[in-house]
Specification:
By secondary structure, the chain is mainly alpha-helical. It is 79% helix and 0% strand. It has one domain (2-199, 210-295).
Amino acid sequence: MPLVITWMTVPDWMQVLATAPAHATWIACMTGFAWGFGAIMFGQGVSAIGISMSNTVVLATSASLGSLFPIWLLAPERLHQPQGQAIIAGTIVGIAGIAMCGYAGLLREKSQANDKEAVRGEMVGHARPIAVGLLLCAGAGILSAVLNIGYSSAQPLLSAAMRHGYTSFGGSNVIWLLMLTSGAVPNLIFCGYLLSRNGSWAKYWAPKCSVFYGLTLLMGLLWGGDIFLYGFASPKIGRLGPAIGWPLKLIAGLMAANVAGYLAGEWKLTRARDRRWMTLGLLVLLAAIVTLGWASTLQ
């Protein structure tokens, strides 16, 4: 998907890379490669301590670091100006909402612990010591933020594409081509190792698996679409687009996931207190979205 979209929007992307600063290309490749290890750690963290707690730690870490570092990189002087302060405030409110949603998820797991039909595989692997799980999730959160830090640091690639007459969207796609391709390398190697160790290659041609191929491809297209839409919108917000857009993207995604889970019946066997915490968390996340949206107008 990165290669196709980049080719469609920047046909001579190789020429763009040839004229762009070499350090920007290296930054995009190396941060993308590091982010790939973050994705692996996230999967291991979910396996260790469950979906709710792992998502809370990862998203809170990624939202905070992925917002603050771009300000320091792109416009450190704005940290003490109204826009920088509004971004920090919106990010803090978002982290509070993430924590509330995570706490609600933990309460839900406890409420459903005695009902095996209600528990939908929160633990997708074997349990590990809580300290190990938290370290994995903290590492995943830091390396997830590296994706946005790398995108912010590789902005000279976007500028190079615009000098060739392409749009900022096309320039962002050149950055994503390098970062996502580099991030795929450790993921493919690790998945290949697991498939070989577990002897599970044969599941790819198991009977009646075509529907899972379709769902998997749809997941990849939707996730990739999310990244490319972020690359389209971020430059339009202004110089601090990555600092505003990153926490906004994570918060909106978490809201959508929780609303979808509620509509799918994941909360039907929980206590009223559990649902109140989730509702409060969603309201706080909505407040964070409003705050970050307001910050984008303070240029």
